[in-house]
Amino acid sequence: MINSPRVCVQVQSMYIETQSQPESDRYVFAYTITLRNLGRHPVQLIGRYWLITNANGQETEVQGEGVVGEKPRILPGGEFQYTSGAVLETPLGTMQGHYDMVDDQGQGFHVAIPVFRLAIPFLIN
C-alpha cells in the first residue's frame, strides 16, 4: 500500500425526513460523495470500508466491492460522484472510512474518507 494524496474526497449529507420514522427510532440519511483525481494517472475505486457510529456509540462496519454497484475508473483531472444512504437508530451519528484504490500498474492504496456528521437539521446548530 502506498500513501497517496492523489484523490480528493468531498462529502455532503442530508436528512431524508420523508423516509424517516422518529417514533420508531428510524432516521434515514443520504450522502453524496465526490471523488476527484488530482494525480497524473488514472485510478480505480475497487472497494470501500465504512465505520458508522450512532449517538449511543453503537458502531457498524460495512465493507465491500466498489460503490453503488460500480468500480469507477477516474481519469486525471476527472471526478466521480455518487449518492448512497444510511439508516440510524438515533437522530445523530457519524461516518468515516476509506476507499481501496488501484493505479494503472495495479499498485493498491487507500484514500481516507474524513469523518462526517449525519444529523437531523435542528441538531446541527
UniProtKB/TrEMBL annotation:
<dbReference type="InterPro" id="IPR007474">
    <property type="entry name" value="ApaG_domain"/>
</dbReference>
<feature type="domain" description="ApaG">
    <location>
        <begin position="1"/>
        <end position="125"/>
    </location>
</feature>
<protein>
    <recommendedName>
        <fullName>Protein ApaG</fullName>
    </recommendedName>
</protein>
<dbReference type="Pfam" id="PF04379">
    <property type="entry name" value="DUF525"/>
</dbReference>
<dbReference type="InterPro" id="IPR036767">
    <property type="entry name" value="ApaG_sf"/>
</dbReference>
<dbReference type="InterPro" id="IPR023065">
    <property type="entry name" value="Uncharacterised_ApaG"/>
</dbReference>
